[in-house]
Design brief:
Elements lengths: L7 E2 H14 L7 H14 L4 E2 L2 H7 L2 H28 L5
Antiparallel strand pairs: 1-2
Amino acid sequence: MSSIDQIHNYHERLVLDEVLRRARDMPGVTADMVADMACVALNKLPARYVRHDVDLVFYLTESERLESDKAMHKAIDEAVVLVSERSHQDVPQA
């Protein structure tokens, strides 16, 4: 693996893991909805590109880490609500 292949957005795995965790407790959530939730949440967060996750964690203060975590959870909360509401609107009523 080259150095360039190691570059990724720090939030991607964290957001996807959390959305997947929450989706397990949400009946009717599809794989497409999970992907949409992750995308919406990631678009609300600043891009933080790193080679290794520890690189970012090392340079942040404890308060910056807590603020980043809080922002990530808020973005996920909002994404779950938005995608859930919109997916129910797309369902034809009988």
